């Protein structure tokens, strides 16, 4: 019997093989499709997730551009401040204690909910990797946080906007938010240019968050803006406006000072103002710029447009006769009245403007006609945006002539049924001042990457001109002829001499202008109010060669007659007087002696320079730190006053110069000639001698202290004129000036001719 050998494996069935092969094919296909989905279709998403896990990107804020005035004084700068933040995942269970400790340091303002303990705790709970505690701390707060040395709490430097002059030109400059984004004024209008381009820091990290390397891109700082504003003129305008606002208990006020030959705005003052360094506690209603966004009926100041149109377009002459009909005129059932105290009959056109006759103005407009009158109004810039570099400018209110009612021309002729802005008003006056050419107003001089101190960035100090630019700016056009403009200036001067603007007349300067008083619409009755008004004044000075144009608008005065003559004209008087003296504009009229105590005082306590008749000698001794045995300490005030009597400012002609010097003691005259201390000499030869003599100035140390050169002495010059003239006279002799008061130089310590070391600070009292 034979043995049959058994097979070692079971037979393979074909069906089972097919199933297994099919399974592996499907499994491989699924894996392949999944890989295609992950590596092709979702490749970008997974790369982003990987980058978030493996890399950290930090944005580096750029430095915001600086705002300068025309003399390169900083109006808005960016400084470094420290902010505190936390990484909640590193705090563990101590979040409550950390929130309590930090809120005790950073929560100093009860109205600030962001830094309250509950708010800090909510942010620590809501985030795992990052939570702000407080932004832009004071140095004291940052130091206290640093001393706590809390785990998971860090300080980070940030840029912070700072306004060195607090509320000066606040509405013009504007303000920024917590992230340095411009929200108002120039800050908002030029946000893109000022903000700059942020930088980036890309850092690779491992699984334990350790940095492996970084790649940086530097931020690009923002552009710097140079404004046409002069800080000194801005301060003068704001001081005068604030004082009158307080006196009249008015709601709002605006003063605009403009160069009539370029259209540049030298000052744009608004009251009340706000402090952009402390926005949390400011009234939102005062943030807007009333000079470009506030529309009001101009009243009688608009008569300048009416009379200019009549002289230029209807052949009217200032000496022509107009019948004012006793102060009342009826047309289409409507009666137009002059002021209740005015009952003019047949008077000259000039007299009608000087005394602000409404009837006379209406008849001038009717001589021109609706369509032509409308064209002149538009030519002066009304009814359209001026293009000034400020946000939220309105075009004003002016209906086309075809939509005027039958009696609209009577209303528009006297400044009703038309809405204007203060900037439009001052630009209209500038067109008359410069010879009849409309120049769009501008407040931006330059946009540059250069910083102060770079030789490529030069200050643009304002010097009055008597000619228009060689290249006219876009939008400039002639409105009236030069002859018409000259006639209008003469009529405006008459308003200041014998008419309604007498309270705005200047001392030593001719001026021309027009008062205006417009009734406001009562929101309840929708009719003109008998108690609420807008008082305004628009003027120029000097008349024959205007250096400045000024518009003053005071809204809703509550004290006095509330007319423009009483409310706004005095502000023009103070602003124009101080600005012309500051600019060194020559007097074109004799100076009138002002008795002490009779000059108007429009000053705010704490803001204006003191005019208290204090001891100038003591001030001089203190400023210059004179030793006890210094001879200047031996002089009495009486002697100093007597010695400076000849310094009283008055116009000095070339023929009077020898007489003036002849009155000086020979010793003093010799000192003047030897040291160049005088601003004028007896002959051209001596002038040339002084001009050739080098001036050695004082030395300023790195810590800011000024050191005088005791080895070299110079004679103190006769200080005369306004502040700018006095500073120039002192600088020419190598001296400095400590001003007291405002107006013209009246008294100085030490006396003229006194020999003092170079760099000495001379105390000069200015009065009106």
Automatic annotation (TrEMBL):
A GO biological process held by the record? cell wall organization
GO CC entries:
plasma membrane
Q: Please provide, alphabetically and separated by semicolons, the GO molecular function terms listed in this UniProt record.
A: carboxypeptidase activity; penicillin binding
Spans traversing the lipid bilayer? 17-37
> Which Pfam family, an example, fits this chain?
PBP_dimer
Q: Which residues form the Penicillin-binding protein dimerisation domain?
A: 60-208
Q: Which UniProt keywords apply?
A: Carboxypeptidase, Cell cycle, Cell division, Hydrolase, Membrane, Protease, Transmembrane, Transmembrane helix
Q: Where in the cell is it found?
A: Membrane
Q: Locate the Penicillin-binding protein transpeptidase domain: which residues? A: 253-576
Where would you say this protein principally sits, based on its record? membrane
| Signal peptide positions (record) | none
Q: Which InterPro entries has this protein been placed in?
A: Beta-lactam/transpept (IPR050515), Beta-lactam/transpept-like (IPR012338), PBP_dimer (IPR005311), PBP_dimer_sf (IPR036138), PCN-bd_Tpept (IPR001460)
List the protein's name: Cell division protein FtsI/penicillin-binding protein 2
Origin organism is Terriglobus roseus (strain DSM 18391 / NRRL B-41598 / KBS 63)
Q: What is the lineage of its organism?
A: Bacteria, Pseudomonadati, Acidobacteriota, Terriglobia, Terriglobales
């Amino acid at each position: 019997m034979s043995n049959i050998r058994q097979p070692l494996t079971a037979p393979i069935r074909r069906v089972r093989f097919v199933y297994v092969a099919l399974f592996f094919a499907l499994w491989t296909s699924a894996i392949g499709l999944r890989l295609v989905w992950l590596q092709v279709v979702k490749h970008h998403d997974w790369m982003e997730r990987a980058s978030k896990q493996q890399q950290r990107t930090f944005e580096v804020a750029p430095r915001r551009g600086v705002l300068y005035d025309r003399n390169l004084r900083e109006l808005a700068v960016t400084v470094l401040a420290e902010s505190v933040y936390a990484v909640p995942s590193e705090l563990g269970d101590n979040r409550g204690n950390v929130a309590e400790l930090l809120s005790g340091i950073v929560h100093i303002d009860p109205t600030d909910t962001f830094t309250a303990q509950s708010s800090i705790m909510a942010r620590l709970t809501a985030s795992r990797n990052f939570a702000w505690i407080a932004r832009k701390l004071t140095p004291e707060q940052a130091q206290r946080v640093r001393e706590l040395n809390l785990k998971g709490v860090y300080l980070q430097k940030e840029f912070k906007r700072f306004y060195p002059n607090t509320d000066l030109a606040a509405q013009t400059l504007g303000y920024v938010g917590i992230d340095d984004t411009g929200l108002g004024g120039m800050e908002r209008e030029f946000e893109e240019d000022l903000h700059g381009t942020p930088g980036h820091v890309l850092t690779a990290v491992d699984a334990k968050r350790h940095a492996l390397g970084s790649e940086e891109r530097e931020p690009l700082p923002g552009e710097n803006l140079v404004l046409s504003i002069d800080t000194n003129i801005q301060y003068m305008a704001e001081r005068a406006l604030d004082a009158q606002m307080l006196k009249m208990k008015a709601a709002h006020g605006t003063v605009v000072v403009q160069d009539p030959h370029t259209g540049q705005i030298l000052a744009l003052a608004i009251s009340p103002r706000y402090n952009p360094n402390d926005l949390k506690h400011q009234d939102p209603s005062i943030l807007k710029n009333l000079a470009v966004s506030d529309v009001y009926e101009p009243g009688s100041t608009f008569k300048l447009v009416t009379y200019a149109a009549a002289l230029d377009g209807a052949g009217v002459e200032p000496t022509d006769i107009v019948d004012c009909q006793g102060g009342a005129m009826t047309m289409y059932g409507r009666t137009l009245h002059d002021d209740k105290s005015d009952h003019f009959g047949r008077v000259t056109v000039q007299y009608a403007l000087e005394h602000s006759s409404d009837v006379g103005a209406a008849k001038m407009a009717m001589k021109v006609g609706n369509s032509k009158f409308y064209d002149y109004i538009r030519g002066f810039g009304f009814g359209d945006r001026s293009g000034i570099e400020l946000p939220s400018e309105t075009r004003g209110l002016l209906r086309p002539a075809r939509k005027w009612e039958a009696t609209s021309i009577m209303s528009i002729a006297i400044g009703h049924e038309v809405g204007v802005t203060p900037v439009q008003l001052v630009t209209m006056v500038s067109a008359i001042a410069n010879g009849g050419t409309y120049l769009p107003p501008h407040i931006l001089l330059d946009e540059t990457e250069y910083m102060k101190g770079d030789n490529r960035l030069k200050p643009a100090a304002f010097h009055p001109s008597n000619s228009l630019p060689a290249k006219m700016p876009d939008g400039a056009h002639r409105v009236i002829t030069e002859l018409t403009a000259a006639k209008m200036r003469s009529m405006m001067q008459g308003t200041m001499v014998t008419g309604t603007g007498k309270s705005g007349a200047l001392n030593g300067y001719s001026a021309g202008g027009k008062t205006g008083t417009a009734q406001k619409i009562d929101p309840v009755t929708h009719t003109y109010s008998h108690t609420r008004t807008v008082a305004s004044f628009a003027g120029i000075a000097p008349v024959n060669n205007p250096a400045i144009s000024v518009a003053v608008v005071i809204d809703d005065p509550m004290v006095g007659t509330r007319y423009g003559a009483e409310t706004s004209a005095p502000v023009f008087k103070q602003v124009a007087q101080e600005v012309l003296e500051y600019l060194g504009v020559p007097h074109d009229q004799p100076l009138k002696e002002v008795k002490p105590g009779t000059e108007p005082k429009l000053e705010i306590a704490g803001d204006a320079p003191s005019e208290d008749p204090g001891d100038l000698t003591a001030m001089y001794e203190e400023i210059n730190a004179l030793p006890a045995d210094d001879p200047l300490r031996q002089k009495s005030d009486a002697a100093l006053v007597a010695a400076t009597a000849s310094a009283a400012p008055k116009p000095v002609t070339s023929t009077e110069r020898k007489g003036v010097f002849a009155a000086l003691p020979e010793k003093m005259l010799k000192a003047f000639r030897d040291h160049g201390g005088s601003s004028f000499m007896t002959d051209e030869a001596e002038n040339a001698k002084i001009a050739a003599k080098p001036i050695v100035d004082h030395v300023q140390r790195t810590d800011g202290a000024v050191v005088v050169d005791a080895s070299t002495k110079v004679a103190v010059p006769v200080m005369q004129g306004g502040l700018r003239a006095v500073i120039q006279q002192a600088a020419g002799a190598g001296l400095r000036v400590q001003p007291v008061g405002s107006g013209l130089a009246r008294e100085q310590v030490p006396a003229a001719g006194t020999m003092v070391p170079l760099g000495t600070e001379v105390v000069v009292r200015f009065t009106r």
